[in-house]
Amino acid sequence: MTGLLVVLGLAVWAAGAAVDLTAGAGRSWSRLAPYAAGVVGSALVTVAGVRTVFAAPRTVDLGATLAVGSTLVRLDPLAGLFLTLTAGLGVLISACMVSWARPAGRIEGHGTAAGFLLLLGSVVVVVIAGDAFTFLFGWESLTVAFIVLSGVGRHRQAAQASWVTGLFGKAGGAALLLGFLLLAGHSHSLRLAAWAQVTPGALHDAAYALVVAGFGAKVGLVPFEVWLPAGYPAAPGPTRAAMAGLAANVGFYGLWRFLAILGRPPQWLVITVLVLGGVTALLGIVFASVQSHLDRVVAFSSVENAGVILVGYGVALTGAATGQPQLLAVGLLAASLQVLAHAVAKSGLFASAAFFEADLGTGDLEALRGVGRHHRVSAAAFGVGSLSLAGLPPTIGFVAEWMILEALMQEFRVHQLALRLALASAGALVALTAGVAAFTFARLIGLMLRGRGRADPPATVVDGGVAGRGGLVLLAVSCLGLAAVAPWVVRFVADGLAPAVAPAAVTGALRSPWVLQPVYRGFSILSPSWLWVTFPVGLLAVFAMATALSGGRLLRVRRVPAWRSAADPVAGAASYSPFGYANAMRHVLGNVLGTRREHAPLAPTPVGARSAPGPGDAGSAPGPGGAGTRPTSARLAARTTVVEPVTTYLYRPLRRATLRLVALVRRLQSGRLDAYIGYMLVALVVVLAIVAGLR
After folding, report:
1. Which of 403, 407, 249, 406 has its CA nearest to residue 315?
2. Does the structure show a pLDDT above 70 at 66?
3. 101: nearest Cα among 160, 197, 26
4. List of E strands, 433-548
5. Residue 7: which of 71, 97, 69 has the closest Cα?
């Protein structure tokens, strides 16, 4: 029955993609039908995922379905856990797409819906794959879906984003292919389960590192993170939510799966994951804090979340490397909760941002000030998702971040000095990341959602539409409700992680039916469920006491506009702005951001002329005057830029070196056939000499 549900879901998605490719987006029914198919197919796969978590593992041999060996489908609790998460989000994101795509002209031609449904299908194929070829088939199909969605727009940025997305997708796929070939060559089998027999050694460690690099490229581990801020914003509408909140999870699924298959990792790999994970988290949130476009803020936040998740995964690797099942359990549980929190919240943010941009025609933070005053539903969903990503109670993001920090505090249980230092370093980086995240999302909530808008609201405010509002509300409720039922979430996750760690070890996180602990008893406890009782009671108690002590004057307090600088009369360009709010971060972390400030003179303005000062004006000084001339004032425009270090100091020099090498190699193209034959002969002799030497 479970397998039938998955097949039906894939069939519904295929039918929806066929409608888009044949009928296109010219008519209303053909524009909406593929996304309705996304809702139906995702619902079927969600039911299959829940059933798989609680069913016995089984492998189905589909024969030569893909024409290479046997096509194996593996249905076990880990696959069920990720099917439930990804397909459940697929239902909500597809509902948002139904409303977003409804207006005529928003989607042109073919490809958007087909790319979206291909993404959903590829994720399912990767999760249920039981052999190397099926896994790589789904993985490359997912890369194609990313390329289509990031490049479907008809502008230059979309073309560039598509190339960058494809480049890093192929790089990650190449690393996986090489790692799979090493494991398959040693085990003489393409079955993933057979690779558990590979004994520890140099080949095992090399394959482990290649697998981690391949999956790390998909989720945005430094130095592969540069494609996320380029690829995500280029995708149309809520498909960004599908890319960031849904499809990226297959990278984490791959890490979890191969931890269960390959077992104990080398110590140097554990240290690398912990340190790079912490650096990724801090780098992502720092650059998110200074962005001026909403989609880039959320995209850089995805880099931060990936880093935090990988730090939790590094704790699990530490437990596997040192033979401590409890440390493995707390690390994998913390990382899984963070995956859940990130997926739900990030989907809500990208979907809400898509409706803001659709109604207002821009994603610039300055232009979106006060958007919450006329976009009630989408702004509420955005605000709740922001609270979750900031790690604030009572959201699931708070529970996940608490568990990550508690897992890192177990470093005293590790006896190897190098691992202890790596855990301590990662803990410090994650703690700093949490503080910057609060700063980043306070800017979005305070200035963008609750601030006073600079322009009148649009004449037509869709605010998500009927289906979109339903999806956004459920995403927001999930951010809050999952925290309230966190003990049941832990039980479900424990069952899903059974292939990697014993459920009994994971459920050690349950101090009691309503209280959580970081697996180890007597260390610390938290009750997210009781927070939902104590928070409202405390709020009412404080309000009642303040009202009583003020003698009723509390409700007559003078009210002023929120998030404004200086006194109330300050308005217009001089008022507090998202750019100005981020200036503190540009200066405090200038060494990380590479902040540069440039000034350029503007055209002189007569002293008596009326001109509103621009936001970049730094002051004025009298200009040269003479007989018969009118005094003028000099005006300066200030431009502040930041430097992305990985792109600037790694990829740009690498690009220049590659272009120089290509220019050098081009000289060999003499156009003479005898020269080409000579090159081939030399290469053949070299290969024969190497083979003879190896024998």
Report:
1. 407
2. no
3. 26
4. 510-512, 515-516
5. 71
